[in-house]
Structure formats: C-alpha cells, structure tokens
Design goal:
509 residues; alpha/beta; Rossmann fold; Luciferase, domain 3; GMP Synthetase, Chain A, domain 3; 3 domains; nine-stranded mixed sheet; binds 5'-O-[(S)-[(2-aminobenzoyl)oxy](hydroxy)phosphoryl]adenosine
C-alpha cells in the first residue's frame, strides 16, 4: 500500500518538500542554543551539501561515516549526506577507536564527518584504518571545518537524483558479542518507517514536539527523534547528555509531547516525575528491551500515560510490533503494525498457533540486508525476517515477548525465560533493576541466576536473598526461582539500554 516514486531522494522529502508544503517558518529542530525553521534547516543542509561536493569531492554512492552526539549539526550532516546521494554510516558516540576501525574497514569508508568533541577516538581509528582518508570536523569554527566552509556556500542545492532503491544508510548493530553487522537501507525504507508506526500507532500530529535519549546513530533515535517529526512538519528537540532528571526538565522546558527512550530510563525517571509539570507530555514510547509490567504500571500511575511499547530492530530499521492507548495490553508488546506481518515459527519453521513459544518472524516494507555478511541467510528465511526473539502469540493476535532465543534458560528439563523472572523481581519494592540468566550447572544443565540492583544497597543480605527467592516462588512456577542471586551496584548495559547478558553469563560462570 505504501507507494513511492521510482526516483526519490529522502532528504528532499524532509526538507524542500516540507518548505513547499507551507512549513518554511515552522520550527524543525531545537536544542539548547539553536532553533532552526524548516527553511533554515534546508538552507544549512544545502550549504553542507556544497562542502561535501566542492571541498570533499564526494560523489553519489560514497559512504560517509558520521560521528556526533544528538545535536542540530549532526542531524544536518546526515541529511546533507543523503542530499548528495551518498550513504550515511552513523556511529555511536561511545564507540572507541578499535570499534570504529572495524566499521571503517568493514564498510570501506573513505570520508568522515565528526563532531569536534568526539574527534580523538576517530583520529586513533584513522591510524588503525588508513582507508579513511578525509575527516571533516563540525561543531567547531577552526579552519576548514564544516561550519567555516559552509558559511560561504549558496543555500540552494538541488538534491542528487537517486532511486527509491538506492542505499542511503548503513546502520551497524551493537554486536553484543560478535562482529557488528552493517545493515543497508534504501531511501524508500527511510520514508516507509515514517509512514508506518508514527501514523498508525503513535498518531503523531504536526504540533507535536519530539524528545528523548536514543542516539541518532541508533535507528530508534534517528527515526523517533529526527525523521518522524520532519516527515509531518513537527518539531525535533535534540539534546546531548540527558539524564533521567534533565530529560524531565527538558520535557517541561520545551513543552515536549512525545518521548522516546528505553525501559530502564523510564524506570529511572519515575522518582523525579513529581518534581516537574509534564502537562505537555502526551505519548511515551518504550523500545530496545522488553517493557516489564511493573514498569508500565508504575509509569502510568506516575504520569497517567499508557506506555507505547514497540519492538524494533536495526535490521528492520524501526518498530514493527506495537500497540497504543486502549489497544495496549500489559504483558504484550502489541500487534504487527499496519504494513507489517508477524508470526511465531515452531521448531520445524512452520507458523505456530496461539500459545506456542517460538521464533518471531516478520515481513513488511523494510527488512534485513546485511552488508557483506554471511549471517544474512540466518536472518532472512523464505522472505521472513527472524529477529532472534522468542515470542508467543495469544488468541487475539497480541505478541508476548519471552526472551532472546539465545537467552532461553533450560534448567532440569524446564524452559525458563529470564525476563519472566525479572518481571516478578521488579515488582518487589527493594528491587531497582535486575537481569536473570542461565549459568552452566552439572546437575541441572543450567541454573537460574539473578543479578539484582537494590534501591538501597545497604539492604543486601542472605535474608534478602531468601526473601526474593520466596517472592518469585509465590508468583510463578517454583522451578523458575533463581537458585543464585548476586547483588550488584549496576548492570552492564549497551548505549542503547540493553542489559549485556553475555557479560553476566561470563561473570557468573
Ligand atoms: C530487542 C525488544 C522486547 C529485541 C530498535 C526500536 O532495539 C532496536 O534495535 P536493535 O538492533 O535490537 C533489536 C532487538 O532488541 N527489543 C527491541 N525492542 C524491544 N525486545 N520488547 C521490545 N519493545 O531482541 C530485538 O530483536 O538494537 C528498537 C526501533 C529501532 C531499533 N533499532
């Protein structure tokens, strides 16, 4: 049903097309010291496009590494790369030289645009990967920076004529253990994600103000914090170094109406909610990790808002199963959003009926295309994308997350999904965060172990271990209770908010 012209440049859709549609003077991007209307953003992007072509001599199809925190220039640089027909390869701000070098080599990247604040690691990466020939800095007025060079450029630039099926984005997965995988996406994919979840489920409107934490280098953030608002003429607030407290403060200050972040961040925001007036906030989207019922309920009690849970993946570009408002159900991620199909596959690879735990398979306008990676055949099976998640569908077509397929625990012949035990522990008043994994055990194959962060660390004791074990036993089948519990000050997490279970398994083994 989504139809795009055969030739389309997605940057034009976000910029001059919006200006033509009457949004010229509407605020497109805001940050601490910047406010750009759609006309101003378009002019800036055009000037940067001239720098890319005149000064960097880039040609369509070149891959350009981008490195920056969430700020207006980072956004403008991504859009400029698209405008000149190049391929944006945004990288997570916290990546170190070695990790950047893996990406540079894998995607054979010759040019980079880098925020001055994050130059050091890229510099080190460049000496590891000499294939990267030119780096231009932005957010600085040193000589030859993007900012100084663009100042003398024309604010007119006609977008390079690209095909709807030209690659414009290579997004790397966080790669929990193995090598990070590059996923390729077309100009039309970028538009398709804006025309699916935001319209059908989020139902965002032109007057919405979008805010949140995921980096623009993570497709959750790129879509939610930049592309979704630009697609409809709404406003994107881009802020760096947000904490649970400063995000709430910013929601109040910028009168934000739609917030995107991960479950753990919402949990951490809870205790600060009463200090702010959040009347502007209308919708909150949670993704990246499973949303425990306890978090959904506490958030609703504190704010009156029904959380919009959604599962997305870098391979799929954005969210494909979700539910909002009265359609949302505690304990379920939601249903396949319009445009996408989803089913659960049994052990033989056939669609399973309701009530069976199996591998999640999805299909829709976007899908997985790994960049030169043999794992493509593991992800795409007969046209279906296998996300690596174990899910169960109920009789009403709602999808219930169980675990990552690799994280299912088998203990004494029983299957245990760690997140189900985490859900219970999170309801206990002493528990702030937790993660449940399987550890090798001679007798049982695996045992269930819980890593727990207490609200008050001084409460850690053998007695509390026993209390938590009994609490789990009285809430779910007793064989699921954690035979081992270890208290921690914090859980290891990725920049995208996911618990690094492999680290806990290594630590515990
Ligand atoms: C897990 C979830 C349960 C799941 C992402 C929104 O997370 C994103 O992409 P990644 O490539 O990871 C994908 C994997 O993360 N996951 C994400 N959301 C949920 N599990 N409930 C959820 N709501 O294992 C999935 O396979 O980092 C999320 C939009 C864009 C994204 N790239």
């Amino acid at each position: 049903e989504l139809q795009y012209p055969e030739r389309i440049n997605c940057a034009s859709a976000f910029l001059e097309e919006m200006v033509q549609k009457g949004f010229a003077d509407k605020l497109a991007i805001r940050s601490a010291n910047t406010q750009w209307t759609y006309a101003e953003l378009t002019a800036k992007v055009n000037q940067i496009a001239h720098v890319l072509v005149d000064d960097m001599h880039l040609v369509p199809g070149n891959r350009v590494l981008l490195r920056g925190a969430n700020n207006p220039m980072m956004a403008a640089c991504i859009l400029a790369v698209w405008k000149v027909g190049c391929i944006a390869v945004p990288t997570m701000p916290l990546l170190r030289a070695k990790e950047l070098s893996v990406i540079i080599n894998k995607a054979q990247i010759t040019a980079a645009l880098c925020s001055a604040a994050l130059h050091e690691e890229l510099n080190a990466a460049q000496s590891l990967s000499p294939v990267l020939q030119q780096v231009k800095l932005f957010n600085t007025d040193v000589e030859n920076s993007v900012d100084t060079l663009m100042a003398n450029k024309s604010s007119q630039f006609s977008a390079v004529d690209t095909a709807a099926e030209d690659v414009c984005l290579i997004s790397f997965t966080s790669g929990t253990t193995g090598m990070p995988k590059g996923t390729m996406h077309f100009h039309r994919d970028v538009l398709a994600i804006c025309d699916c979840f935001p319209r059908s489920t989020l139902q965002s409107q032109v007057n919405d103000v979008f805010i949140g934490t995921p980096p623009l280098a993570f497709t959750f953030g790129l879509g939610g914090l930049l592309l979704f608002p630009l697609r409809i003429g709404a406003t994107a607030v881009l802020l760096e170094k947000l904490t649970p407290e400063t995000l709430l403060k910013a929601i109040e200050e910028y009168q934000a109406s739609i917030c995107f972040t991960a479950p753990t961040f919402y949990r951490q925001m809870l205790s600060f909610v009463p200090q702010f007036s959040l009347q502007s906030l209308k919708k909150t989207v949670s993704a990246g990790e499973a949303l425990p019922v306890a978090t959904r309920e506490a958030w609703q009690a504190a704010t009156g808002l029904v959380m919009i849970d959604g599962i997305g993946a870098t391979e799929m570009l954005h969210i494909f199963i979700s539910a909002a408002g009265t359609d949302a159900r505690a304990g379920a991620t939601g249903k396949a959003i319009p445009g996408y199909q989803a089913c659960v596959l049994d052990e033989e690879g056939k669609p399973a009926g309701a009530g069976v735990i199996g591998r999640l398979a999805v299909k829709g306008p976007t899908g997985c295309r790994y960049l030169a990676d043999e794992r493509q055949k593991n992800y795409v099976y007969q046209g279906w994308n296998l996300t690596g998640d174990a899910y169960e569908m109920d009789a009403d077509g709602y999808f219930h997350y169980r675990a990552r397929t690799d994280d299912m625990i088998i203990t004494a012949g029983y299957n245990v999904a760690g997140p189900e035990v985490e859900e219970v522990l999170l309801k206990h008043p002493d528990v702030a965060e937790c993660a449940v994994v399987g550890l090798p055990d001679e007798e049982r194959g695996q045992i269930v172990k819980a890593f727990v962060v207490l609200r008050d660390a001084t409460k850690a004791s053998d007695a509390l271990v026993k209390t938590l074990q009994d609490y789990v036993k009285s809430n779910v089948a007793p064989y699921k209770y954690p035979r081992a519990i270890e208290f921690r000050d914090a859980l290891p997490r990725t920049e995208t908010g996911k618990v690094q279970r492999f680290k806990l398994k290594q630590a515990g083994a």
